[in-house]
């Protein structure tokens, strides 16, 4: 990245490059599978995006069973948007960013750039993964024409993270994934802080279990003091320092996850598939009931619903009072024990 670029330009360039890198790695993983569908779009209110989605469902007239591809459903989406932020949204954001001016009536221009991905493998023994890295900026006046002055920045922050959701616990996978994130973090205390935040965020209170085995999660990361991060923890503070931190985490995605899809696994049975679909049901519950990003997206006017719901698996299952996971000593019970009590993996 050249130093002359603005943070908006740096982030836009970064998410575009990372999307290309991740999609290419996933396509190389299974060269006989169909390519990701690339859906480029333009936002009428300002901005653009590219959704890269993989889904391998039967075409009309074909057999009912899909091709046995490595992935069942996946999406790697980029959005770079701008527009006007209404007073209600500004009021909510001031809780973490007091520098944002607010009079209850005036809208302010915003800019947001990010990459969001969810990968659902076909095998029950290969874990689902989610990652999201984003940058948000608010200025004090309406943006001028393309290439012109965008106003004074009154608030900015980064957010994101990456987490793993297996149906069956593989400790080797867990150690590899978490160690990759910790190494990219280059700060063990910061990794521990964001790992704890991840365990707390991806949690289903009505089930009293985490969605998966965690990773790292952070939000509203800026030069302002953040209540979730102790002053004793050395952390990036300037925009350039935080951008470098986010970039390392983004670049760590392929080496942290793709090797897990390259491992030799057992052949699953109908029993394993049933458990996988039940676990996917829990994934859906979290995303639709608790996930702030999904809820915010669904409330946004003119939202691209297909992109927002891309995170959901193609198939899932809900059983009334299912006995799976209750058999003592079973692999399903072993998975549930970890979800009830998060562990340290790196």
Q: In words, what does this structure look like?
A:
- The protein has helices at 7-29, 87-93, 171-185, 188-201, 239-251, 253-261, 270-289, 292-299, 305-308, 331-340, and strands spanning 37-42, 47-55, 71-85, 108-121, 128-139, 153-165, 203-204, 209-210, 214-221.
- With 346 residues, it is an alpha+beta fold.
- A hairpin with a 4-residue loop joins strand 1 (37-42) and strand 2 (47-55).
- The longest helix is centred in the first third of the chain and has 23 residues, at 7-29.
- It is globular and about 60 Å long.
- Mean pLDDT is 90; it is low at 143-148.
- The strands form two sheets. It has a seven-stranded antiparallel sheet with strand order 1-2-3-4-5-6-9. A two-stranded antiparallel ribbon has the order 7-8.
Number of DSSP-assigned strands: 9
| Main CATH class | Alpha Beta
CATH A-level architecture: 3-Layer(aba) Sandwich
Q: Distance between the terminal alpha carbons, to the nearest Å?
A: 31 Å
The total number of structural domains is 1
List the secondary-structure elements in sequence, H or E.
HEEEHEEEHHEEEHHHHHH
Q: Kindly name the structural category.
A: alpha+beta
Strand order of the largest sheet: 1-2-3-4-5-6-9
The coarse overall form would be: globular
* Count of helix runs: 10
Specify the helix fraction band.
25-40%
Q: Give Rg in angstroms.
A: 21 Å
Can you summarize the main beta sheet?
Answer: 7 strands, antiparallel
Average pLDDT, all residues? 90
Segments where pLDDT lies below 50 for 5+ residues?
A: 143-148
GO biological process, one term: protoporphyrinogen IX biosynthetic process
Organism: Paxillus rubicundulus Ve08.2h10
Pathway: Porphyrin-containing compound metabolism; protoporphyrin-IX biosynthesis; protoporphyrinogen-IX from coproporphyrinogen-III (O2 route): step 1/1
GO molecular function: coproporphyrinogen oxidase activity
């Amino acid at each position: 990245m050249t130093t002359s670029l603005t943070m908006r330009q740096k982030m836009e360039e970064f998410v575009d490059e990372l999307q290309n890198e991740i999609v290419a790695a996933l396509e190389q993983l299974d060269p006989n599978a169909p390519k990701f569908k690339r859906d480029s779009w333009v936002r009428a209110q300002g901005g653009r995006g590219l959704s890269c989605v993989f889904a391998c469902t039967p075409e009309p007239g074909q057999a009912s069973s899909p091709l046995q591809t490595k992935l069942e459903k996946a999406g790697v989406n980029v959005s770079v948007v701008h527009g006007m932020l209404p007073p209600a949204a500004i009021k909510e954001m001031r809780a973490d960013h007091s520098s944002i001016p607010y009079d209850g009536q005036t809208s302010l221009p915003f800019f947001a750039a990010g990459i969001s991905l969810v990968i659902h493998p076909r095998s029950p023994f290969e874990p689902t993964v989610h990652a999201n890295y984003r940058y948000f900026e608010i200025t004090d006046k309406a943006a001028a024409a393309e290439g012109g002055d965008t106003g004074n920045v009154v608030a900015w922050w980064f957010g994101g993270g990456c987490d793993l959701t297996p149906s069956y616990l593989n400790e080797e996978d867990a150690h590899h994934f978490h160690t990759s994130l910790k190494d990219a973090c280059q700060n063990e205390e910061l990794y521990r802080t964001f790992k704890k935040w991840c365990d707390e965020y991806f949690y289903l209170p009505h089930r009293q279990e985490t969605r998966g085995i965690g990773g790292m999660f952070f939000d509203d990361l800026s030069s302002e003091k953040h209540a979730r991060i102790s002053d004793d923890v050395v952390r990036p503070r300037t925009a350039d320092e935080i951008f470098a931190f986010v970039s390392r985490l983004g670049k760590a995605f392929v080496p942290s996850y793709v090797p897990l899809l390259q491992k030799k696994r057992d052949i699953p049975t109908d029993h394993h598939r049933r458990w996988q679909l039940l676990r996917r049901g829990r994934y859906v519950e979290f995303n639709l009931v608790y996930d702030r990003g999904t809820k915010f997206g669904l409330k946004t006017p003119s939202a691209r619903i297909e992109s927002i719901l891309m995170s959901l698996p193609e198939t899932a299952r809900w059983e009334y009072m299912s006995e799976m996971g209750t058999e003592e000593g079973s692999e399903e019970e072993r998975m549930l024990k970890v979800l009830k009590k998060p562990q340290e993996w790196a």
